[in-house]
Design goal:
alpha+beta; 4-stranded mixed β-sheet; 3 helices
């Protein structure tokens, strides 16, 4: 049989593989986080008919005579360029801008992905569309997050509440004009159960010092809190005062250190610590991977930090389906850290990374694969015709 037939067959197989890769790229043109692949060919075995020979005093050197035996697929490489941004508006849709991969886990198996379409399941676990849990760092009992510790699945349990905190300190800011006789303001405080109380404060000018009184509501009795003194420059000299527990049921410290006594208009602003109970309303993710819970009382709490991984050789990652990769001996070990640190890209919440498939390039490769396949089939046809002529010599 003729060598050209086997060369043509190898060409058909290689271009069929190229067509398969191009078809898969086109099929995933709208798959978030998909990374395109490209095929490169290489020649197969070469038969040496005559080897090379050095020259001598009589004749010159001769080159080898070698006949190739076809082609084969050398590599199918991933193209890991950045994909375009698709805005979704969902807080849990995340895109990595730069290098890195999200870490997802099924049981004890760990995978890596660029597809950041996440959501919370009924137990509050952050998962992708296939139920794989997104990995990161959870806070300790004191609310601190250690980004150098072991990874764990990210979870924000539904129905979570922000515990109420009793008011312990009240701060008064502003100016008490020496020309004013009496100034009023009010401030909201909270008891240990998170119930709110409105405390009214009355400042009465006593020719250089100011007496402070407090009461709850508009009709409660005024109760003395203490006096506030100022120096000749209008700076407060008094120490902190205490609102007695007879006013609202518990003592509250009153800090007047931010007050002044200058001429002009009076203006007061009172603030206090403490807060009511809050119910979880929403969750957001920052560019650094911080998962923040927003509560109905206006407060926020850090619930977790999403981890990302980088590899020395991303091209060595193994595709395992479902838009995920697995580490391989040639990819190197995953280097895990917080988004935005080192060479890791930052996160873009409310967006997904689209496929990096270039349709113009893929359609061009489609034509190349088709014509290559067609040309190799013609080689087989021509070889067959030559064999037919050989068989028909003796007729």
């Amino acid at each position: 049989m003729m060598r050209s037939m086997f060369s043509g067959v190898s060409g058909l197989r290689s271009h069929q593989t190229m067509m398969d890769v191009v078809g898969n790229n086109v099929a995933n043109v709208n798959t978030p986080g998909y990374k395109a692949s490209q095929v490169t060919f290489q020649e197969t075995l070469t038969q040496t008919v005559r080897g090379a020979a050095p020259g001598s005093g009589v004749v010159g050197g001769t080159n080898p005579i070698q006949i190739g035996l076809g082609t084969q697929v050398a590599t199918v490489d991933g193209i890991f360029t950045q994909g375009a941004v698709q805005t979704t508006g969902r807080n849990t849709d995340l895109m990595i801008q730069g290098d890195g991969y999200f870490i997802v886990q099924r049981g004890e198996e760990r995978f890596y992905t660029r597809a950041g379409s996440f959501g919370f399941d009924r137990e509050g676990n952050l998962v992708n569309g296939n139920g794989l849990k997104v990995m990161g760092w959870m806070p300790d009992a004191d609310g601190n997050v250690n980004t150098t510790g072991a990874l764990s699945p990210i979870s924000v349990p539904l129905g979570q509440v922000y515990e109420p905190k009793q008011t312990e300190e009240m701060t008064i800011r502003g100016n008490l004009s020496p020309d004013a006789d009496e100034i009023h303001t009010s401030v909201r405080v909270y008891d240990q159960l998170g119930n709110s109380h409105e405390i009214a404060l009355r400042f009465t000018n006593n020719s250089g010092s100011w007496s402070v009184e407090a009461r709850v509501g508009d009709d409660g009795p005024w109760q003395s809190v203490g006096d506030i003194e100022f120096d000749a420059d209008g700076r407060v000299t008094s120490e902190s005062l205490t609102i007695p527990d007879s006013v609202v049921g518990f003592e509250i410290g009153l800090d007047p250190s931010s007050l002044s006594q200058f001429g002009g208009t009076s203006n007061l602003e009172a603030t206090s610590d403490g807060h009511a109970m809050g119910v979880l309303q929403d969750v957001s993710v920052g560019a650094d991977g911080t998962v923040t819970a927003h509560f109905s009382n206006g407060l926020t709490r850090t619930m977790a930090i999403i981890a990302t991984a980088t590899f020395a050789n991303p091209g060595g990652l193994s595709r395992v389906g479902e838009s995920t990769f697995a580490a391989s001996p040639n990819s190197g070990a995953a280097v895990i850290g917080q988004p935005g640190s080192g060479d890791r890209g930052s996160l873009t919440p409310g967006a997904l990374e689209m496929s990096n498939v270039d349709l113009a390039r893929e359609f061009t490769n489609l034509i190349i694969a088709q014509r290559g396949f067609q040309a190799n089939s013609r080689v087989i046809t021509a070889s067959d015709e030559m064999l037919a002529d050989l068989v028909n010599i003796r007729r």
